[in-house]
């Protein structure tokens, strides 16, 4: 009887140990070539930790034309707040005026905090984003809110009209 209880205990312990160790050996990997992984890499490579905190604090805030707070923000409002808080630069409030304010800079020489200007609706600048690194930028998207995005996507390359610096 004692031998049967010991044997049962042994098998129960062994099964329990196998279950626990099998959970611990499962490997979870993230494909490093996904857009999300590349955006995360760009964020982790930011020089300014204050910029990192600012972006993570605003990520996901919905787009709202004319908005300037966490209830909703537009692209030029986001650029306005970011440049003021992180770099101490007061930009004009509208993206078209921000483009006039920024000194033109070659796309190959962009640095963290430089501005990207787009024209989705014709000839005038109607969208702005802030360059991070490795071809990624942050902006307030009309459909996805504040997000880190890939500048190399054809949708952005076709409408990029100016890159500039205010720092």
Automatic annotation (TrEMBL):
| SUPFAM superfamilies to which the protein is assigned, alphabetical | Cysteine proteinases (SSF54001)
Keywords associated with the record: Hydrolase, Protease, Signal, Thiol protease
Q: Keyword check for Signal, yes or no.
A: yes
Q: Which InterPro entries match?
A: Murein_DD/LD_carboxypeptidase, NLP_P60_dom, Papain-like_cys_pep_sf
Q: Which family does it belong to?
A: Belongs to the peptidase C40 family.
In terms of PANTHER family, this protein maps to: ENDOPEPTIDASE NLPC-RELATED, MUREIN DD-ENDOPEPTIDASE MEPS/MUREIN LD-CARBOXYPEPTIDASE
**Name listed for the protein in its UniProt record:** NlpC/P60 family protein
């Amino acid at each position: 009887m004692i031998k049967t209880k010991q044997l049962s205990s042994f098998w129960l312990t062994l099964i329990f140990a196998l279950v626990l160790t099998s959970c611990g050996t499962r490997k979870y990997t993230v494909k490093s070539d996904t857009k999300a992984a590349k955006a995360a890499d760009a964020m982790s490579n930011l020089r300014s930790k204050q910029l990192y905190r600012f972006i993570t604090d605003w990520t996901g805030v919905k787009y709202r034309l004319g908005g300037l707070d966490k209830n909703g923000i537009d692209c030029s409002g986001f650029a306005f707040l970011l440049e003021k808080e992180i770099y101490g630069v007061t930009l004009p409030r509208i993206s078209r005026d921000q483009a006039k304010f920024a000194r033109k800079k070659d796309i190959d020489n962009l640095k963290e905090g430089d501005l990207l200007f787009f024209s989705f609706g014709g000839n005038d600048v109607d969208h702005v984003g802030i360059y991070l690194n490795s071809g990624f930028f942050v902006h307030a998207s009309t459909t996805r809110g504040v997000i880190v995005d890939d500048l190399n996507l054809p949708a952005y390359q076709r409408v990029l009209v100016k890159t500039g610096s205010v720092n």
